[in-house]
Specification:
Layout (H helix, E strand, L loop, with lengths): L1 E5 L3 H13 L3 E5 L2 H10 L4 E5 L1 E2 L2 E2 H10 L6 E5 L4 H9 L4 E4 L4 H12 L4 E3 L2 E4 L4 E4 L2 E3 L3 H12 L4 E2 L1 H5 L7 H15 L4 E3 L3 E3 L4
Parallel strand pairs: 1-2, 1-3, 3-6, 6-7
Antiparallel strand pairs: 4-5, 8-9, 9-10, 10-11, 12-14, 13-14
């Protein structure tokens, strides 16, 4: 699988290239829009990983140009921007996912495998399908509400690291401490797992 990574942070791009290469992916790096455009003309890619804010332009505009040229390569945005307008524009252009900086490099790997390989993620006695957002225990579907599935997936993708309360608010229909606590309690009860409340910092799903 061949990937084009557009990222002007040299340390981050090298870290991601090393991680993805070890997983068997072939990765080309571009630090500027013009360089990325040239690479898309010269090579065929299976996935674009695009930053949004760049010194010479905007990753959203790049994807718009590529789509206009009938380039339908799957795209994941890597960005510090989380405003609704940017996210809406990205998805309207056909982006398959967003990943917010800062993030654990392994999270990106999980997302790529989940989107392309449709791999089931196994956590203890639970099998979770990121495509359908369905959790199973002993082959039986666990009745997770939409919000509960979103929260569990967020914790799963950040397994071993603390997820802030503010991050989990993004999974709720209406931001509320009470709603978040209720959802977490139901997840723990339905899945039979422990989700630790790290006082003043957030919530933690421990690694296996």
């Amino acid at each position: 699988m061949k990937i084009l990574l557009l990222e002007d942070d040299a340390i981050l791009s090298e870290t991601l290239q090393d991680l993805l290469t070890r997983e068997g992916f072939e990765v080309d790096i571009a630090e500027e829009i013009e360089e990325a455009e040239t690479l898309t003309f010269e090579h065929s890619y299976d996935l674009y990983l695009l930053d949004i804010n760049l010194p010479d332009g905007n990753g959203l505009d790049l994807l718009s140009s590529l789509r206009f040229a009938e380039d339908e390569t799957p795209t994941i945005f890597i960005t510090a921007l989380t405003d609704m307008d940017s996210m809406a524009k990205g998805f309207k252009l056909g982006a398959m996912d967003y990943i917010k900086k800062p993030f654990q490099p392994a999270e990106l790997l999980i997302r790529i495998h989940a989107k392309f390989n449709k791999n089931t993620i196994i956590y203890r006695h639970i099998k979770y399908d990121p495509q359908s957002h369905i959790a199973r225990i002993d082959g039986q579907i666990v009745d997770l509400a939409n919000v509960q599935a979103k929260i569990f997936e967020k914790l799963l993708l950040h397994c071993g690291t603390i997820v802030t309360k503010e991050t989990l608010y993004g999974c709720l229909d209406h931001e509320s401490d009470t709603a978040l606590r209720v959802a977490l309690t139901k997840i723990k009860q339905k899945l039979g797992i422990e989700i630790k409340n790290i006082r003043g910092r957030g919530y933690l799903l421990e690694k296996l």
